[in-house]
């Protein structure tokens, strides 16, 4: 049975929470300058939640595997390379991706960038994933479906992003904006990225699931209300102590 690595899920929850406001990324891939004032928004969560793995949907642009669904965040590295080689690859990304909400699959370690980084041939990739699929069916364990294998093996960033994007995130082309990005960035950033009030409004119920601190919740509601043009009140159940 494949081993699944979820190291960066917990690291994102631990590091990004404490440093969510400490970002300095202003250059988007397409040459667009996105303004960002890190002092505008308070830390989103009480520090006591730092190790909570269910905060991953707040920070990650694609679905995680909690609940049994397959995910790009699950890297079955031991099917392809040694642990040492894998950790060298992980370390090559540094730590910025843990502190800054990512909007491109190419900017943080995931199964797609793993395939590209190790230059795994599509034929070999398909063969191994299909073998694991058959094994998973026999053992009644998690495996990629035929559709997922086809999409992954296409190595088409747009198809992969569209399929694996989190319900919590907003996708525009190959750019994926997770809730942490929406929380942290300014209304000006939303406009530059092409995010519309309707896109945000569709996800308000999902945003209310996060246990933001009281001060963070108030700040987030105020910003979203201004952007959407009507009062936003996220669920009272999302409120935590400051």
Structure description:
This protein is mainly alpha-helical. The protein has one domain (7-238). A two-stranded antiparallel ribbon has the order 1-2. It is 45% helix and 2% strand. It starts with 6 loop residues before the first helix and ends in a 14-residue tail after the last helix. The chain has helices spanning 7-19, 56-59, 83-91, 96-99, 111-117, 122-139, 146-154, 157-164, 179-184, 187-193, 197-201, 204-207, 214-228; strands at 170-172, 175-177. The protein has 13 helices and two strands; from the N terminus they run H-H-H-H-H-H-H-H-E-E-H-H-H-H-H.
Q: Name the overall outline.
A: elongated
Detail the poorly predicted runs. 1-36
- Helical residue percent band: 40-55%
Biggest sheet details: 2 strands, antiparallel
Average pLDDT reading: 80
Number of alpha- plus pi-helical segments: 13
H and E order: HHHHHHHHEEHHHHH
Strand content: under 5%
Oligomer: single chain
How many strands in all?
2
Number of domains: 1
Q: Report the radius of gyration as a whole number of Å.
A: 18 Å
Distance between the termini: 43 Å
Helix-strand category: mainly alpha
The largest sheet has its strands arranged as: 1-2
